[in-house]
């Protein structure tokens, strides 16, 4: 299958590598020049479950990809949320009538961007439990196991997704069809919509925040706003289950001492955050549906204030 | 007049010094041992508009004051908000039927604490534009001019305040009666209720915050909650005027590069903040009146989270 990995960061590298190993015709598209140069020269290197590998995969800068002759059967989207629209614009000549687009970005509401480029029937919305890291330009660190749930947003449902699921599973990516992908996406977004913004604004790890006597109140207020919006979209969210999952982030023995990805982006790497596609998406949808979302609104504003105060780019 | 200055920090030192210079019988009560020791040994020292002064004023630790034989005509309250109740408990033997209590603390709702000790007719609620600083234990820095507005909370109104106003004016403290003290208090609280908590949480000076593109939204949301509660208490708040005053805090040429007092308390000195008596008071009153105050609520919770994460005392 002819596959574009649109956004070849840590997760894109994992998917590109595994799909290439399974004999698909894969090209990577990214915007980080040093990363691209290294992969062109040495192949995509990775520590893949302890084994050193280097896969010779084609990679293009998104600014030079528009004239590449490649008719994609599948595009897998792995950009940062705010780069999604620009990426789709860059690769749109390679997207045809039969191209499926699988979106695995974190956050909510990306289909509103994607449907400007392909019909809903071509969009597969997914949620993945795979993890991945980059050790440097051109070099990934890929450990552990994962899975993908995905759903077709068109009326054809499962039948429009079966071929893609087969290809993903031949690459051992553990994909399965879901009839309720929005629920998984909202559930994951609740964890990101609390830990990410709060630990960033409070300059805190997850355990230190979780052990304050106001953590429960704050988290419940935010999650209840996500739940109200999710309900309006017929995505059921089990609030107690979500709250219990968030509390596992506070455990010092496991992940509690870590800082979430948004903290890394802004506080360590001085980059703009994805807050507009997590809490900010709840605010936009809340306005559309007439649902009050003050906690998400204030948190989104505070993170934007912090970005500007720090001069993030 | 026999006057207790309850809380002899920067502002208490100014008032104590000026009232003592005007030949009143003043005692200071405080909780900072080194400050007390220095004043006992050397008098209260100050750079007073450029002139070095040292006034020999009696000072007591609030833990040792309960047996002091002093029948106060006037108590001026200048503690931190969270220390108010403890201070009143310490000095209650010196408060009699005719003692007036003038409250000049920042924040909202202190009369709810004070009325546990004296009737409303003895309470004078005030707002002051005087400033003061401490250069170290026992040593104040007192520059510029100021004024006091005050109102009697009982039914006697102005007549119950006249003697006190005369004494304050003999000490050149520029006091005058107000029929609308709550409005001034709410106005000041709006400035504190935005700049203090926001600059603390964002680790920012006032200009850097004010220049972000979310500052207006955040500030307007918070001020509208203050205004709704103020209205319920018949304190008129001119929202446009308040917003304009807040914007003067962003001016880099004047005070914009400063950090507000709450930032100093928590981020520099690792002390607990007065947030419960500013935004937190709006939340409490909002609950009582059935007014929704999510921005004040979230900001109060965030500041408490930050206190706990930093281990403030």
What structural category do the secondary elements of chain A indicate? alpha/beta
Helicity range of chain A: 40-55%
Low-confidence stretches of chain A: none
Overall shape of chain A: globular
H and E string of chain A: EHEHEEEEHEHEEEEHEHHHHHHH
User: Could you state the oligomeric state of the chains shown?
Assistant: homodimer
Determine the number of helices of chain A (DSSP H or I, runs of at least 4 residues): 12
Q: What is the end-to-end distance of chain A?
A: 36 Å
Q: Radius of gyration of chain A from the CA trace?
A: 19 Å
Q: State the major sheet of chain A.
A: 8 strands, mixed
Give the tally of structural domains of chain A.
2
CATH architecture of the largest domain in chain A: 3-Layer(aba) Sandwich
**The CATH C-level class name of the largest domain in chain A:** Alpha Beta
Mean pLDDT of chain A comes to: 96
Named CATH topology of the largest domain in chain A: Rossmann fold
Strand content of chain A: 15-25%
Please list the strands of the largest sheet of chain A in the order they lie side by side: 5-2-1-6-7-8-11-12
Count interface residues per chain for the largest interface: A-B, 27 and 27 residues
* DSSP, total strands of chain A: 12
CATH superfamily of the largest domain in chain A: NAD(P)-binding Rossmann-like Domain
């Amino acid at each position: 299958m002819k596959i574009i990995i649109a956004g070849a960061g840590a997760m894109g590298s994992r998917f590109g590598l595994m799909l290439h190993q399974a004999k698909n015709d894969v090209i990577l598209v990214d915007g980080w020049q040093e990363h691209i140069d290294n992969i062109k020269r040495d192949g995509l290197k990775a520590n893949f479950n302890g084994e050193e590998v280097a896969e010779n995969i084609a990679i293009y800068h998104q600014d030079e990809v528009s004239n590449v002759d490649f008719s994609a059967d599948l595009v897998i989207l792995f950009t940062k949320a705010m780069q999604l629209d620009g990426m789709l614009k860059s690769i749109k000549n390679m997207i045809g009538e039969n191209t499926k687009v699988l979106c695995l970005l974190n956050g909510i509401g990306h289909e509103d961007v994607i449907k400007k480029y392909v019909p809903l029937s071509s969009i597969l919305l997914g949620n993945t439990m795979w993890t991945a890291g980059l050790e440097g330009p051109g070099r990934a660190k890929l450990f552990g196991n994962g899975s993908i749930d995905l759903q077709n947003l068109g009326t054809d449902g499962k039948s429009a997704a079966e071929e893609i699921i087969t290809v993903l599973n031949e690459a051992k990516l553990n994909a399965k069809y879901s009839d309720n992908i929005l629920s998984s996406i909202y559930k994951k977004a609740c964890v990101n919509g609390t830990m990410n913004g709060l630990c960033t604004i409070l300059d805190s790890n997850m355990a230190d925040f979780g052990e304050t006597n106001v953590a429960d109140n704050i988290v419940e207020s935010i999650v209840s706003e996500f739940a109200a919006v999710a309900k309006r979209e017929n995505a059921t969210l089990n609030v107690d289950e979500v709250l219990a999952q968030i509390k596992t982030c506070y455990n010092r023995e496991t992940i509690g001492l870590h800082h979430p990805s948004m903290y890394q982006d802004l506080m360590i790497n001085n980059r703009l955050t994805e807050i507009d596609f997590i809490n900010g998406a709840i605010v936009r949808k809340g306005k559309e549906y007439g649902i009050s979302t003050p906690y998400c609104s204030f948190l989104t504003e505070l993170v934007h204030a912090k970005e500007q105060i720090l001069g993030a780019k």
